[in-house]
Amino acid sequence: MDEQESLPPHVLIFPLPLQGPVNSMFKLAELLCFSGLHITILLTENIHNRLVLHTDITSRFDQCPGFQIKTISDGLPDDHPRDGGKFLEVFDSLRTKTKTLFKDMLTSDLLCFDLDGKERRRVSCIIADGVLGFTCDVADEISVPIFCVRTISPCCLWIFFCLPKLIESGEYPFEDDNLDELIKSVPGAETFLRRRDLPSFCRSGDLTDSNIQLYKTEGQENSRAHGLILNTFEELDEPILNQMRTICPNLYPIGPLHAHLKKKQTTLRPSSNSLWAEDRTCIDWLNNQLPNSVIYVSFGSIATMTNDQLIEFWYGLVNSGQKFLWVIRPDSIAGEEWRSKIPVDLATGTKERGYIVEWAPQEEVLAHPAVGGFWTHCGWNSILESVYEGKPMICWPYFFDQQVNSRFVEKVWGIGLDMKDTCDREIVEKMVKDLMVLRKEEFLGRANHMSKLAKNCLMEGGSSYSNFDRLVKDIKSLSDKV
């Protein structure tokens, strides 16, 4: 037997350089490591630098000898903001500048040795974010099998798959300004999906919009891979998954990824993948609160708000009379003047009932018995974490897939309230009271049922457990042919 063939399969994982995808794909990397595979996770230099700054990333995989991190340039200057408004520039740079570096890396000996100088196989399989279409090009050129992974919601991905049909049918661009008109060209969602629930960029009405051009080929791009890995579970998304299988027959729904390691009972110590420094004093504060009495508020790592929106939200929270834990990132509000202009009644109400931090250990917060609800931007990781812990949601989507997700939270799964396109203190107050008081038992009952399904799917014989085992077997089988 060739010496290379005697070594474990070597999988390169390339996440999209954003907090959510990086977080999810680190979880996937950990799982694959504990399945006997050698893993290289490829991070852009910018993301790696932030992880080094805020986490124990350099030491956390000491117990995983098959794991290593490599970095690659995203082709942008160090001072580029790489935020929501500028992120398409990251896509463009990855496609035009990083693609060549990626191919050179895979065809060199750079990945054939770990940090200790021990030999590992050449990369025998690639797992890359499906929006990074150039990775499929490179995989084809060097004859290495590739799996796509999407860390956004299946419901949004399905809309991307349907974009050509929306355009062909004349439903997009919209003929008028009625955002409550139902959308009929997304199979499986005809009875509840409105124009306002489509991904945020659809409101531009411009077919030349760079987002439309990027995402309308999703069905073609993702179907090029051997299979599509999704961070969901059959019991949550079965109707949409069945629709997606008409385009990508080989799906691996293996989520919730963040909970897999807990079920696998690995010895890897708990750690963070956060690009922000976590303030753990909020856990001490939660420890002093009654069960299900606190609403946790966090709008993720990218969403921003105006000072006016901040004040409306704040009054709504304080006037609701509920305890609240609120994450306000340093860059989430334009300017710093809000800190010196907090109305006295808000400051007093927050001191009595609230706690504000710049960033929180979210998984731990959502698992805390004091938390009874989650006011979220509806990023997919946040939704899955909330579903797993049985916490009902108030949804204030910011952009991208979040508009779609919030509609599914309310109308499909019935585990929360959709507050999109709203910023009014009276509505905030009403929704917080509905979730935490008036309809508390109703929402908690449905959320707890969904939580049980999420936990069961990860047990031996469960849907995600079985799909993950099938993924590992397929990776090993394909790697043997390289």
Question: How would you describe what is shown here?
Answer:
This protein has 482 residues and is α/β, with parallel strands linked by helices. The protein folds into 2 domains: 10-154 and 211-273 and 458-480, Glycogen Phosphorylase B (Rossmann fold); 281-360 and 369-455, Rossmann fold (3-Layer(aba) Sandwich), CATH 3.40.50. It contains 18 helices and 13 strands. The strands form 2 sheets. Strands 3-2-1-4-5-6-7 form a 7-stranded parallel β-sheet, sandwiched between helices. Strands 10-9-8-11-12-13 form a 6-stranded parallel β-sheet, sandwiched between helices. Strand 4, helix 4 and strand 5 (146-150) form a beta-alpha-beta unit. Helix 3 (87-107) packs parallel to helix 4 (134-142), helix 11 (307-320) packs across helix 12 (344-353) and helix 11 (307-320) packs parallel to helix 16. It is globular. One of its GO terms (molecular function) is quercetin 3-O-glucosyltransferase activity.
